[in-house]
């Protein structure tokens, strides 16, 4: 049986990807950002922690989807996904390889479980997906695991509620546990933490709110799932809503999750960088 063993969450700031691609990680500005990922980069190499498949919850930033088509939840079911051209050419990172049979199984299981996923067979993947892979796996020739992209709309109003995301995570867990192959599966949530890229409040960071969010991923997930959109907007800036994607990851871990590692650093580009690794205890 496939099983979810751990959850990982991380910011996906595009400048972090650029810092890696351009060899700037040892510069004073970037050093403390990357230092907090060293633990995870070692942890994920341990045989028992190596995922066969990562279900990577991310958002597209008007790269694959635009105002013509905005799926609330979309699952990538093709064999592979190319890094997107986000304006400076595609990042020179490996092509993302999927476990398509497993992705189709998850799509079927979730849809029959009354989560109406959009099935995507052609989708270039932007920094929302490639930066977390770079953060965890550094710069390999090929990504060391299969990746199922799961895109959530947090770009155009209305995004799904935190509760809906949390419950989607639970449906994903049911889907994984009904797949007969023996697979070590991780669920990753990306985006956040507090940041606002636009308007008079651009640059807003709320470290206190972010830290409490990190605390409650293990201590009180029930509180997190009930945070309304307006609180994300007011307290964490217009792009802080990306954190609802962390709740898909959290819902997929079941009732008990234990914190293994945490990293928080302000700022990287315009964002508060947050990162957490949670172990699945149930
Ligand atoms: C930044 C953060 C993001 O999550 C994003 O999608 C784009 C930019 C930033 O901090 O610059
Ligand atoms: Fe983003």
- The main sheet orders its strands as 6-3-7-2-8-1-10-9
Instruction: Examine the coordinates and then state which fold CATH places here, giving the name of the CATH topology.
Output: Protocatechuate 4,5-dioxygenase, Chain B
Instruction: Estimate percent helicity.
Output: 25-40%
The CATH top-level class label = Alpha Beta
What compounds are bound to the protein? Answer: 3,4-dihydroxybenzoic acid, fe (iii) ion
Shape category = globular
Question: What is the C-alpha radius of gyration, as a whole number of Å?
Answer: 17 Å
Low-confidence stretches: none
Query: Major beta sheet, specifics?
Result: 8 strands, mixed
Total individual domains = 1
**Structure summary, number of beta strands:** 10
| Number of separate helices | 10
């Amino acid at each position: 049986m496939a099983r979810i063993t751990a959850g990982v969450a991380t910011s996906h700031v595009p400048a972090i990807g650029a810092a890696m691609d351009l060899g700037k990680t040892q510069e004073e500005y970037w050093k403390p950002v990357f230092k907090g990922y060293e633990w995870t980069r070692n942890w994920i190499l341990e045989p028992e922690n190596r995922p066969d498949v990562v279900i990577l919850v991310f958002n597209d930033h008007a790269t694959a989807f635009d105002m013509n088509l905005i799926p609330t939840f979309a699952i990538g079911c093709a064999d592979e996904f190319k890094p997107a051209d986000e304006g400076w050419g595609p990042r020179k990172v490996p092509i993302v390889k999927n476990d398509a049979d497993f992705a189709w199984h998850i799509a079927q299981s979730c849809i029959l479980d009354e989560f109406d996923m959009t099935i995507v067979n052609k989708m270039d993947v932007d920094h929302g997906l490639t930066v977390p892979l770079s953060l965890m796996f550094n710069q390999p020739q090929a990504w060391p695991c299969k990746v199922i992209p799961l895109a959530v709309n947090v770009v155009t109003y209305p995004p799904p509620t935190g509760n809906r995301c949390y419950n989607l995570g639970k449906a994903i867990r049911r889907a994984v546990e009904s797949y007969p192959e023996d697979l070590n599966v991780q669920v990753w949530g990306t985006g956040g933490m507090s940041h606002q890229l636009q308007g008079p409040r651009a640059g807003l960071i709320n470290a206190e709110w972010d830290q409490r969010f990190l605390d409650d991923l293990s201590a009180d997930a029930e509180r997190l799932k009930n945070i309304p959109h307006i609180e994300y907007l007011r307290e964490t800036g217009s792009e802080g809503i990306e954190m609802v994607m962390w709740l898909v990851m959290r819902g997929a871990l079941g009732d008990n999750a234990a914190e293994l590692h945490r990293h928080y650093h302000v700022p990287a580009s315009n964002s508060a960088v947050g990162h957490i690794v949670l172990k699945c205890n149930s």
